[in-house]
Amino acid sequence: MFLIQDDKTLIKKALGGSQSAWCKLVKRYEKCVYGYALRMTNNPADALDLMQETFVSVCRNLSDFKHQSSFKTWLLSLAYYRCMDFFRKKKLTFSDDQELDNYESETVDSCPQINLEQLQNSAGLMQMMASLSLEQRLIIELKIFQQLTFEEISDQMGISTNTIKSRFYTGLNKLKLLIEDSDYAA
Questions:
Q1: Domain residue ranges in the chain
Q2: Looking at the predicted structure, is the pLDDT value of residue 160 above 70?
């Protein structure tokens, strides 16, 4: 029978210098962080970069984790900040909003590290999510895909719970309309 260590134990061991514990933490959450970054950027290469940057941040800041929330919530808050930095930098490098809009609505490029079938099944949803505002996309990602509560999202983003709910339901309604207008409605 395998003994699965909880996050708290792995964190303690990783802080003590255990390479194995660190690898287990990364392995446990890499798909979660990658999926989050992929749905936010709609680009596999950018998602891999953001995943790597997030885990570098985790490595640098793990001693600051105070267990006031779950490790996953803390990890996703670091991923959130990496994504916000990414979009700030992208906005600065694009000459106008039209270029940024075109970037965000690109289809997903192929990436050898991703299961192609999974990409094909989620590409339509990712394109639809790219049509949402960044805030709506982020909130839907955190609520639906990462299964955070409205309160956890509110704490992470520094916005009231009511604003989070409003943006969440507005985004869901936009997605519903997009799905009804697409081939998925068949």
A1: 18-185
A2: yes
